[in-house]
Each structure stands twice: as structure tokens, then as C-alpha cells.
Write a structure and sequence with these properties.
Layout lengths: L14 H4 L10 H24 L1 H27 L3 H23 L4 H22 L4 H18 L4 H19 L10 H41 L9 H18 L3 E8 L2 H8 L1 H18 L5 E4 L4 E7 L3 H16 L13 E7 L7 H17 L5 E5 L2 E3 L9
Helix pairs in contact: 3-4, 3-5, 3-8, 4-5, 5-6, 5-7, 6-7, 10-11, 11-12
């Protein structure tokens, strides 16, 4: 009773699977295997810790629910002139049980599974009181409804179905204890005693639901942000970058707003990666991404297009202005000093393409920028090549002139 809206929706499974599968990391080879294993281990530990905190979260709701039920049940017991033994049972189940359940779960090797058993015992206790109250109608209906709704709200698969037999067993035990006495009439006094359980429980569940929805919305927003960002470089992931780039191209075709695309590729990246290792390779990518982010504007679209290739879409920008920006990036990349390979020189090649009528699709625009990029590679790397207004503009720039 009173354990609805406990927090994130739960499922019975081994703790190792609750966190989900390993998150792909932007590494390759052995580094990726080690990193993925470490990430999976960390997620498993977090998931297990989250499940083990379940008893503490449920305790507050169980304490409230049982306390409200105590008022309702106490009203019936007073009317029926209950025995001392029945009142002792009332104190044990309504007042002491929440604390005993918490103690039992915390001392268990698996607090989560112990708490699932406690939830089933809640239903058995509710059923017991239906019988002991001699089936007083309103309190009995309330107890059955609330404990069943509580099980459904946890989202633990089939828990509410499992709770029905335990509830029925409790009813049978209570009915046998009273000789199957049947007094369904609900007096005004008992009705008033039932109102706190009906009203306060409903309000508490609503508050819990509101908090849960807010947390879920925050988590979804965080996941949405994470899904758009490449974890290694801090730049847009390819899919998100392509979506924004396509929107920029559509605006160009709709209202003629200029836009320029830069494709940037790290020179000799595979050689450096193989020679110095993946850690240095990752450092190169982070440093180059940092140089790009330093010079782009807030409304520019910079993303990681491939392993060592980046794309930058510059709205409201002509090719000439884009080349000036590329010059700045080129110089900053040359100044990079790698902690893992301080003697190594980092350079990039850049291809620039201004959007025009030939670019009906984003793929065609990228192909044009890639053509300029490959021309820069063939011309010796560490330089810029630009294509604008449909004409090749030999804006090659070697290391000695930039």
C-alpha cells in the first residue's frame, strides 16, 4: 500500500542486464575492447546500486500507505469490538511492518529481490485485513484497489498478477480467523476514517508521478543531447550533422542565402595511429576538434563526419570568408603539441565548396567539398583547396605560405 510511483520503471532481471548493453566508444582494436569492458562494468555497478536503493525509496510510501490504512482499519475494529489479539495484529502490520520490511530488505544479499517479496507480502497483509474486517465494503475495496494499482505502477512484469493469489490467501486466512463473518455495511464513521487513505494516497501518488515524469523528461533531454554529440571530440555526430547540413542547403535553395561547406581530414592519421597507438590517435582527434570549435560560430554546424574527417557547414558565408576561417584552423592545428608524441607534427587538409544550384542534395554538396579535399591531398596535404560558384579556384596553400 502506498508504494506507487517509486521512481524509474523497474523490471526483474539480473543486475548485470539492467544497465543495457555496452555503449560503443570511439576507439578501435584492443583499446575499444578494454574501454567497452570498463564501461559495461561501470554501468553494471551503477544499475546494481540503483536497484539496491529501492527499499529505501519504497519505505516512505509504505510508511504512508500503512499509516493511512491503520486509520481506516482501526475505525472498523472499533465498531466491531475487536479483540486484543486483533489490535496487536493491527499494530504489527500497520505500524511495525514498514520498518521490518526495510530491515529485511537491507539485510538481504539481494535487496531488490527481497523488496519484490515485500511487495507481495503487502498484498497478503491487505487481504488478511479484508477478512479480519469481515468484508466491510468500502475499506475492503480500497485496500484491494490500492495494493493492485501499486503493483501495476512499479512496471515489474506480472507483479500485479502474482499479487492476486497472495491477496486471496490473505483474505482466506482472515476469513477463517473470524469464522467467515460477513458484515459488508460501511458506516459513516468508517467512511470518514477511509477518506484519508483515499485522498492523501491519491495526492501522494500524483506528486510522485509528477516527479517521475519530470525526471524522465530530464533524462530524455540529456539522452537527446548525448545522442547528438560525439563523445571523443565533443562535436556533432554524423547523423545530426547531416540533418542540420541538409536544412542549411534547403534554406540556400529557398531564399538564396549563401552557405559554404568545409571538409577537413587529418593528414597521415592512420600512420600516426599505428605508430604511436590509439591513445595518441584519440589525442589528435580531440586536439583538431578543439581547434575547429575555437574558430566556428555558435550557429555554424561542426561535426565528426568519419574516423578522422570533420565537416563544418557555415551558414550565410561565402567561400572567401570560409577560406579565411580555414586559414586560422590550419595554423592552429600546426601548433598542436601532442603529450603522447611531442615530436610529431599534426596537419590537416581542407576542402571548401560553396553551395550552388548544382547541389540539389546534401550528398552532391559533400562530393564537391570532398573533391576539393582530395585535390589538397594530392597537392601535398597541409593546405586548402576551394570550389566556389561552380568554378575551381586554385586556392592551394602550402605550409610555407600559410
Amino acid at each position: 500500500m502506498g508504494v506507487a510511483c517509486l521512481g524509474p520503471r523497474l523490471r526483474i532481471s539480473s543486475p548485470a542486464t539492467v544497465g543495457g548493453g555496452p555503449t560503443p566508444l570511439p576507439h578501435t582494436g584492443g583499446t575499444r575492447v578494454q574501454s567497452t569492458t570498463a564501461a559495461t562494468s561501470g554501468r553494471t555497478q551503477d544499475a546494481t546500486a540503483g536497484l539496491d536503493r529501492l527499499p529505501g525509496r519504497i519505505f516512505r510510501f509504505r510508511l504512508l500507505g500503512m499509516g493511512l490504512a491503520a486509520i481506516c482499519i482501526g475505525g472498523v475494529l472499533l465498531e466491531n469490538g475487536a479483540s486484543t489479539a486483533t489490535w496487536l495484529m493491527w499494530a504489527l502490520t500497520c505500524l511495525a511492518w514498514p520498518h521490518l520490511a526495510l530491515l529485511r530488505a537491507r539485510q538481504s544479499a539481494s535487496p531488490y529481490r527481497a523488496e519484490v517479496h515485500n511487495l507481495l507480502l503487502d498484498s497478503a497483509i491487505a487481504g488478511l485485513w479484508v477478512g479480519l474486517m469481515q468484508f466491510n465494503l468500502l475499506p475492503s475495496v480500497l485496500l484491494f484497489t490500492l495494493v493492485t494499482v501499486d503493483k501495476i505502477s512499479t512496471a515489474i512484469p506480472r507483479l500485479w498478477l502474482w499479487s492476486l493469489p497472495t491477496f486471496a490467501i490473505g483474505v482466506a486466512i482472515g476469513a477463517v480467523s473470524t469464522g467467515f463473518a460477513f458484515q459488508p455495511h460501511t458506516s459513516t464513521v468508517v467512511l470518514l476514517a477511509s477518506l484519508p487513505m483515499l485522498l492523501i494516497h491519491t495526492i501522494a501518488v500524483s506528486i510522485g508521478s509528477n516527479r517521475l515524469v519530470s525526471k524522465v523528461q530530464e533524462k530524455n533531454q540529456l539522452l537527446d543531447r548525448i545522442s547528438r554529440i560525439d563523445l571523443l571530440t565533443g562535436m556533432h555526430v554524423r547523423r545530426h550533422w547531416q540533418r542540420l547540413a541538409a536544412q542549411t542547403l534547403q534554406r540556400h535553395h529557398a531564399d538564396g542565402e549563401p552557405a559554404t561547406l568545409m571538409m577537413l581530414d587529418v593528414d597521415h592519421f592512420k600512420i600516426a595511429n599505428d605508430r604511436h597507438g590509439h591513445a595518441v590517435g584519440d589525442e589528435v582527434l580531440r586536439a583538431v576538434a578543439g581547434a575547429i570549435r575555437t574558430h566556428v560560430r555558435d550557429d555554424d554546424n561542426a561535426g565528426r563526419y568519419g574516423g578522422d574527417e570533420f565537416g563544418v557547414v557555415l551558414p550565410a558565408t561565402r567561400a572567401g570568408a570560409a577560406k579565411a576561417l580555414a586559414d586560422d584552423i590550419l595554423r592552429e592545428v600546426r601548433a598542436i603539441v601532442l603529450s603522447g608524441a611531442p615530436q610529431s607534427q599534426v596537419t590537416i587538409s581542407i576542402g571548401i565548396a560553396e553551395a550552388d544550384r548544382r547541389h540539389a542534395t546534401l550528398e552532391q554538396w559533400i562530393e564537391t567539398a570532398d573533391a576539393a579535399l582530395y585535390r589538397a591531398k594530392r597537392a601535398g596535404r597541409d593546405r586548402i583547396e576551394a570550389i566556389a560558384d561552380g568554378r575551381d579556384q586554385d586556392q592551394a596553400q602550402g605550409a610555407s605560405t600559410s
